[in-house]
Predict the 3D structure of the following.
Amino acid sequence: MTRFSKGVFFCAIGLGFLALLFISTRAGEAQGTPQVVQLKEFSVLGYKIRTNNPREATKDGQIAPLWDRVRGENLLFKIPHRLDSNAIVVYSNFDKDGAYDYLIGAKVGKNTPAPQGMAVIEVPAGRFAVFTTEKGPVAKVVIEAWQHILAVPKSEPGGQRAYKADFELYDQRAADPQNSQVDIYIGIR
């Protein structure tokens, strides 16, 4: 994979969330009914930024450069005490002005300390609607999934969005950026 294609792959991950915020919603092809699951609290250790939607829509956006750094320096593999090989992107600490924390990392055990330059986010226990993307180029399928999520009525599936923590799970199905599948977990009340 070339440096360019690696950058495109990881920028697509951030674009998924931007799609949630900036792409106009339209009822497109159904991606299936999301499964609602109850999850226990878990910890994610990784690299965090604080950003907002207007910033990410400009050349000063921070998500793409964070992905470039994580990928270029192979930082996911430097996360101590990883519980698995998956990458997780967590959106949390939403505020009324539109700012949020964006963390790229991996699941770790509870009470794992954050080394210098890293942060830990606790994804709270709760109900999550799980949307699974179609298979295809990661940039395309993640954006389409967020468009579908936006098109779902707010009262579905099974509750209003909680805005505590949402996350994207990049497991072995996302290893090939041209034929990826990703799960997007939306916290619901």
